[in-house]
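Researcher: Going back to the complex we discussed earlier. I've cleaned up the inputs and rechecked each line, so this should be the final set. Can you rerun the prediction on the complete assembly and write out the structure?
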Amino acid sequence: MEDVILEVKGMCKYFGSLVANEDINMTVKRASVHSIIGENGAGKSTLMNMIAGIYKPSKGEVFVNGKKVVFRNPNDAAKCGIGMVHQEFMLYPELTVLENLMMGFETTRMGYFLDRKKARKDIQEICDKYKFSIPLDEKAQDLPVSLLQQVEIVKVLYKGADIIILDEPTAVLTPQGIEGLFDAIRYLTEHGKTVILITHKLKEVMEISDYITVLKNGRVTGNLTPAEASEQLLASLMVGREVLFNTQKQEKEIGEDLLAVKDLTVKSDDGVVKVKNVSFSVKKGEIVGVAGVAGSGQGELIESLFGLRRPESGEIRYKGENITHLSPRGHRVDRIGYVPQDRLGTGCARDSSILENCIMGYHVAHKFKNPLLVNKKEAEGFSKQVVEDFSVKAESVYTQIGTLSGGNIQKVVVGREFCQENDLLVVEDPTRGIDVGAIEFIWQKIIQIAEAGVSVLLVSHELGEVMELSDRILVMYNGEITGNLRNTDELDEQTVGMYMLGGKRDEA
Amino acid sequence: MLGILLSTSTLAATVRLSAPLALATMGSVFGHKAKIFNIGLESYVLTSAFFATWGSYLFENAFMGLLFGMASGVVMSAIFGTFVLHFKSDPIVVGIAMNLSAWGLTSLLLFNIFHIRGSIMDPRIKSFGSIDIPLLGRIPFVGELLNNHNILVYAAFAVVIVSQIVMYKTRFGLRLRGVGLNEKAIQSAGVSVTKYKWASLIITGVLAGAAGACLPLSGISMFTENMSAGKGFLAVSAARIGKGDPFKAFFACLIFAFADAVSVGLQSFNIPSQLVLMTPYIATVVVMCLTNLDQLKKNAV
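Model: Rerun complete. Updated structure for the full complex:
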């Protein structure tokens, strides 16, 4: 009884000379979860934007329920029952959830006045039917991301969508949030809605999808079901070659303490103690992973280690010296590198060139500087090295960094720190929201640099990443380090998970 | 001295003086919510003051003056909108250019039309008469405060209330706020940003035009060079202090108007008039500082 709700035939999209989509054919079955996977820049979002009426296709046809449709704008698509939840939420932070949901789709009295009562009733019905619970009178800015995502999904449902397109919905969520989202998706499809999921996280694809379409360089390279697929197969379809998920780690010498943290206590902006009496050390050439549920104090810990946040008490010693109150600039001078979690907000200046971003933070500390002016030659040489070593796809080092894809930006941010002669690297979520090819690449680089004798403190919300790369794993729970585990083959995710949830702890 | 500050005549003057400010502020409020920073409001008020005078002079009718004033405000908005929305010029540069040109333009027209420099007074320029509301007049204190103002004062209060309703109770208001908060989102909801920005500019033009008409047509029946004397700037500040909320912005207007009224009252004392005339502007700075205090606290690390 599975019938086709959406069909795409010969869809092409060109931006100037760039081919974003070429001859895409795809059918989506009613009440299924259909995943579209591919690396960044493979054309997933472009395809979905065409289906949702945001872009006009250069060529090709869309059929909804067997009828040919042409969309001039997103409203046309909405009328045909297609709604899209964008990766970047289309919300108004200062308005209430109710107003957010009504915007552009208002029920009115006398044609002009908002009918909040009716809107509230209608929305409440949808929430009840699909088991969403969102506070309609709170302002959007006061809600956590996972709730905002629910708001977005309810918005799409409120506009009467039967086909819901979710663009990278898991990128912003915690593991628990992802579980919640998947439950919601399953519930929606049980009730006859069709969900199209754009993602590049293979594990999730295998877990949730009924059908999978793989895109590479704007073309379809595979149409399969999870039963036919494996993570390895999907990855090779996406990248076009074998992908190694298992990093080859060499046995190596681990030296003496490079960084020693003693009894560190840090408060967050609201004055809540986020890091409680934490002590640990990082040895030379060692990769120390920090695992933990998001918000367990990792962010505050890292910020205080890098001088971005003043600790309440405790001591940070680096190469035997007390650096507790050193400024970020001082840390750079001392050869400590930092890859922040938020690559666009903290990691780079969106409107600056690759070159400027490459020397950022190092413009005073190391080289690149004559007494007064930037030494352009050296800066250029260094940025070229970063671009080459990290195979950043860009026209030149003078390209504005904001125009690159997420994976390429991340490569610049990581490359900048890795190509410096740093002794300690503090790396936060280095592969967040980037595609498998780039993930593999950055993982290799981390292993390599540690082999060269650089210590790495790796904070990641992807447990798999910590398990894969680290020599030792520190588990944070509620601001404390509950586990200090050697990462051997016997250690499994379940054990670490127990520590992460506070169910188990080392007695130090 | 405190007696004078809080006397009914000062308070009645506050009500009277708040009218042009409130009208211009409501104009600015709509621009603020649509995220158009229109510092050129001062030029709207000044040119409208001139054209209102001229209209009243030509037809010997105050309402024709008001109509001229509002029309000139709309024209100013058309100029501002063309540059800012279509040619994507920097709104601050356009605004400053308009403010500087308005002074020159009104002085030039004053000379070319009336063959006079400085100011024009003429019996043919008719003002709005004050209205005696029968019941209101009998209420002690409140009556003295609110009765016997001209129609523009009452209209200004009505405009404030209507603005609040339009902003929060109508589809137009919701979408306008949406335009200011997240352009990308509102576009994806199928709403034309340009259309709503133009609509807000037209409202600004009409209301700031009416504000300008208040100045010459509220009894003095004359136009002087630079008659607006910063009223447009005050309105922009009031709208910003109120964060685009009509009622809050109106409250800021009342403070400014009160300071203005006080400065009139203080002139009878032996205080240098220059200092006295500063009070409305000092009030602006103080109010701005106070409203931003909590913001500062929030941002402190």
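Model: Worth noting: Chain B has a mean pLDDT of 88.
Researcher: Good, that matches what I expected from the previous run.
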